[in-house]
Amino acid sequence: MAVKDKKYQLGTAENKAFLDAARDNLLNFGTKFPAPDGSSYWLGDDGTPWKDRNRATWITCRMTHVYCLGAFVGFPGAEELVDAGLKGLKGALHDDVNDGWYPEITPEGGYTPTKQCYAHAFVLLASSSATLLGRPGAAELLDHAEKVFLDKFWDDETGLSVDTWNTEFTELDPYRGLNANMHSVEAFLAVADVTGDETWRKRAGRIIEHVLGWAKANNWRIPEHFHSDWSLDLECNREKPDDQFKPYGATPGHGIEWARLITQWATSTYPSDPAAAAPYIDAAEHLFNRAVEDAWNADGAPGLVYTTDWDGSTTVEPQKDGETYLISNSYELAWFRDEVNKGNYTLNARLTENINLGGHPWTAISKDTDGKFATGYKGTFDGNSKTISGLNPANEAIPNHKGEPVLQSAGLFGCVYTGAVVKNLTVEGELQAGKYAGGITAVLAGGTIQNCVNRVAITLKEGVTDGYAIGGITGYLYNYTDKSSHIVGCRNEAAIDIGAYGRNIGGIVGSGSYGAGIENCGNSGAITSKDSTGGIMGSGSVPITACYNTGTITAAGDDIGGIAGYTSQEIKNCYNTGAVTGTGAKNGVGGIVGRLSSAVSSYSNGKITGCLNTGAVTATSGTAAGAIVGQKTTANAAITRSYFKAGTCTQAIGGNPADGDEAALATEAECGSKRLIGLLGGAFAAGSDGKLTLKETALKQNREWTDADELVKVW
To answer: What is the pLDDT, as a whole number, of residue 714?
Structure first.
């Protein structure tokens, strides 16, 4: 397909201008790298030096090399930055006792142990570039770097570079790696070009011959790790495919780097003999094509994935403990997801490490392809108190329970089904929601989610005009079959901003149905929506017990509450401290519930028992506002033993309360009194500072509280 934008067409004026601008932006960004001793700081996204981190030799060398290139194209001040890097390489980063260069120096003036070929190859590169530029002391540095490298790292018998020594150069690590050899080739070619010593180019060629042999025998996927005798170690770091320097599997980006280096070597070795260079150019093309075929857009995101398995896949099967898969990284998690989505819905998993998904689009585990929830996840997923960060759920058109295709943003899971347990997990990231979306799962239909935390910030996908059933933990809490769905001991700590197109939006649950339950959960994230918006639940017929909200709740439509926007079930032993604001409400703004309904049946038995509100309640339109309930649609929706702090609202219940309602005003001092604590059902206690607390232990509704239960402050 033809590229229409001329800035991406090689050889055009637009492309040159684009590349020049990108180059200058990068050069301007890096100008603050030098530390006073010449070593290189890490830089933040805004170019600010991170002075509390170790300063690495390889980064210092890279920055020195980059600003040599900058000097050649006339970048102002580049020579001075090159000299700063040379200062570090000749001074602080050099080991004056044992010779060679430390891998890193610490902010306190110490150093990390070992001597690495990787870093020493970069010293060769930097000093070569600086010598070509004619900077003072560069030629002497290059001469010294050559001697150290040949003496300590070049194995002339095998024609390869060894990898790592101890600091004193007395003990050689048995590991052999190709990453160091790749940068050795890069450095050797630079040394040959600058000094005219062709033995360095020949050394580069010897490494390349090894690489081509290994790659050709491995379907052009380059092995990276070896034993001391240079035998392949294809299983190295299987449990760590995302390791920075020793990842498991093939590294496609290295395939492209090798393709470039081999082309450079071949054309410089055989400048007048295209036929002699041709086999190497052909091999470089194979490496390049394999890398692109395996890795480009492989995870749904533009660009190359970091590593692949030896068959080119981006997933890795994890090890097992009995019937439970032990998941330590994103590749193993993706494998687990794919296996579940193939129909293996009962697989169990336990995280062993924190996992970063990198913000790449995430296809949900069990995305409910039949629209009837039967394809939902049915196993046990134990987060083991670990965190999955960088979650970015993909927007997919998936059938709902009626078989209708809807935009389901999902979450980590699409559907958690009957018998499933998801527990002890924290998720972080960003979610652009459509319908049925939650940080943990889009739909909970008969399973249990317990002790989970959502830190995935949720907004509405651009162009969506009906953001429906969206929650921090789950979008839709559905009692499918005869087994109830439960959410126990969970928290939402992220903002949920659905704006003018949101309905049934909650910190824990968006929309809930009869037979499910929410217990011992809390929300601290700010929630913004339109209709049916609550700190715990947006709307539903779900009992809510011993839950709290401290986040601000703001909505422009109907049914807005600190705990629930609308409910037809009991809310018991809950509190709200967050401000609840309705900017256009007609049907109720309440500190606990926006609108309360009851027909006194198994499906509808709305009541509020033993609850407390200390957050301000405001309705900018109409009078349907109350410190406890904004509006009661039936007189038999009872309110019992519930209190609100003075000043939160002018009335407990919006409109006229029914006879027998027990919603009373209390002072701040009274809110923490033992008398009130008793009236609130024993879920609360007085803290040592006199402020009211909620006992936060996973509970069933009939459980008695004890003094051993943990306490959470109300305000």
So the answer is: 36
